[in-house]
User: Fold this.
Amino acid sequence: MRHPTLSELISSFEEAGDEELVVHPSELLCARRVWYRINRPELTPPDETPDEVKGLGVVGTILHAVFIPLLAEIYRQQGYEVLTECHLVGEVGRLPVRGRADIIARDDNQITVVDLKFLHPQKLHVPYRHHLMQVAMYAHLCGATRAALIYIARDLTGLVAHDIDEDELERHINDALEMLRQADVDSEDELPPPLPANDYPCIYRTFAGDAHCAYYNICHPTEAVTATEDEISSAVKSYIEAKVEYERALAELEGLRDKVEALEQFLKRTLVAGQLVRTEAGAVRLIEEERHRVDISAVRRILKELRLQVPEVVSKVRRLEVLPKSNL
Assistant:
């Protein structure tokens, strides 16, 4: 049996067409978001991307130009046939789907799709659900049976590869297809899919209260809030009291954390690997394991040789200043 070449497995990408009617795999986080953009394009602003996200997009573009060729070469050295930045096209129901996979590698037995993401250094170790959905849709479009998400720290201090095996990939593909089926609503009332039961108030809203979705106010309309001077004064008083109590608790927690770290370092220096110490409060065992870290000093040199710099991202921060009673 002749295995098809990798090029035969990749659909051609046509630039022509109405982009408002195309689903991008990166959007697979909310069926309502997909439905609004497909069915109500007039509600979509010309550019719904926040400035800070735009800045990170520039970072990603620069780093992609360096990392994709390096990773592709590693796959080739392992005997894979490799395509990079592959444009993929397909349909789910009535919805056309288009995307661009960073790397697709094929050997005689299977196809692997790889997607790169550049994140905060502290957010590398757990893959995001919408990233899993995105790479799963890429796999569905090109027939891949394996996938990988490679998270790279924006400051180039670390790299973590998340391998997705065939069973896990199939689950994510089914989730992505189900989301698209929910978004493919054809009702007389032209109503969007229902709000997700487990996302409160919306997964696109940050802890700071910022909404990064153009349709947030449509899904969660807000009414004008009015308040009397007494209500405002009472709220300010309660806020200051709560904030003082919160900061006191944080100070106590900080001291407790320092104590825990000091004791942990002491035990690490004194115990031997595998030693178990039991006490009335519980037991502690010292585990010793190897952790491999990717050396990216070569990448830093490449960036320097190419005279590429990671642009700074400037964002505005709003905060409340609390004046203690003693200062009034």
